[in-house]
Predict the structure.
Amino acid sequence: MKRFHLHLDVADLAGSIRFHTRLFAAEPGVLKHDYAKWRLEDPRLNLAISSAGRTPGIDHLGLQVDSAEELAALGPRLEAAGGAVVPQGAAACGYARSDKLRTEDPQGTRWETFHTLGEATTYCAADGATCTPDMCTARPQVAEGRACCAPR
């Protein structure tokens, strides 16, 4: 089953945590010094917020799936939608390890479709090396055919 994913960059993490906790009547399931995440059933939403010094607003959208099979089935749909799809296996991002398919829609909004494999101890790492939050949520380097991301 799919869950909608929304990642917001926020200027005031503590205030944003208070707001979303009260709005959804639920504490975040993941809470770090620079990040919080709710995995909600009503509405069926994976909401992440982070304060990494980026412009506040939507960082990226996506779909979280429950299995590798669901992720594989979404790959052809993403390709048919017209965006270049960049696979990223066992990526550490948002304090989680996930297999991902990244793309952009026609407006340049980044989409991240993923299957979570487990927790991670850092916000983001690629190919075994720790990287900055900007690298984790950067625009995919599709032209170079890289599976990792580079800073925007």
The chain has three helices and ten strands.
